[in-house]
Amino acid sequence: MTERKGLSRRAVAAGVTGPGNAAAASRGPYATHGSGRAASVSYEPVPVGRGGGPSGTDRVHVLKVGPREARTVLVLVPGGFGAAGDFRLLARDLVEAVPEVQVWAFDRREENLVDRAGFDAPDPAAYYLDGRYRSQDPAASRYVAGWGLGVAVEDLRAVVRTARQGGRRRVVLGGHSWGATTALAYAAWDFRGDPGCRDLAGLALIDGGVLGAFGGGRPNSPEDVRKRLAAIDGGAVFDMSMAAVKLGDRAESTQIWYQLAGWYAHTDPEGRSVLQPRLPDFLRTPYPITNAALLGTLVDQGFGWPNDISVHSGHLAGTGDVRDWVDDGITPISRVAAAYAGPRPTVWEWYWPARLSLDLDVTDSYTDNELARSLGLALRHTAELNVPLYAFETSAYGGAALAAAREVVAGSRIPYGVYDSDESMNHLDPLFATTAHNSATRTLAAFLTRFRGE
């Protein structure tokens, strides 16, 4: 549906959180080649401004999918605890559907902190679960206290401007969940007098945004903000929400478990689960299961996970000695595993900055108020947005995402909005669902075709 003018974050719910995304930031570029528009895939660094971190952290990375000669680039920002690998399958499907489009998936600078060497080791589970990997000590990572939304949008601007090639190419900026919030913040941001929307040809929001897009926001009173800032200044620099799953007490513990589950499900799906004996009792089935089945139990909504951290995949099979996974939903477990595993294990952000969570919460009001200014959030151009907007929502937030997008359009100079929804999808299904059943891919591709003749 198109409307013209005049006409979770990923939540931590029920004490758990779930499958997200992370990307390999410490590795060099990789590339694959083959037939079709989606064949070109690379992971490339982009230099950014100084952020106070150790050597090697003043850069971000971009997963590039599709033809390098494309005149339109869709830059996608992952959501909370997510990273570039979130979009690998979606990007591949989009560039197959739309000629002259390349997709760039953005990895934040935090990905430079991750140790992914274990996925090249003979026994990845032992490397990570027995503590052999390089972990980030919060006490030695005080610089992360400054990695809020201001740093993220400045880094994102370096990516957008690289993609634009001095104006020779168009950039549509979008994101999933909190990535959609980030895209809208960028569009309204004041970059030393220049509105961010001046860099853009369009905006694409997938199940997220501002103005209550997640079905209600956290209280952001000045007192609440002061308390959260004090905790960050006191050393709580990483957002610890993922620890609610009870798979470990470090910032990265849950992400490691899910990343391993995806890796084994991809490399040996029918093999007996390597991770099952190590799981805590509350997550362990009373019978042996395969690697694919273990990933299914961690991501499928049938196991009680909240809507915004789950997919419609399938169920455990039969009563055999080792139970496997049967796909009967729109998101086959093999696609989830493929996104998790390759070409590098890149679907989780391990070290999400607490300051970034705070800034994104405050950004929900999408106004240049005193509280936003006190945090350095330069949201000064919300009324000046003047590019087409696409918004898609799943069943996760009860219609709030599209209502919020319409409010953004109504309060700006956006010429038209394109809106679509799919109540059969959970919050993460748009990232991994099979091509034929992915409404987000189909409708976003249609939106992108509008830019081909410009």
From TrEMBL:
InterPro entries reported for this sequence: AB_hydrolase_fold (IPR029058)
Keywords: Hydrolase
Sequence segments annotated as region (Disordered): 1-33
GO molecular function list: hydrolase activity
Identification of the protein by name: Alpha/beta hydrolase
Species whose genome carries this gene: Streptomyces spongiae
UniProt lineage: Bacteria, Bacillati, Actinomycetota, Actinomycetes, Kitasatosporales
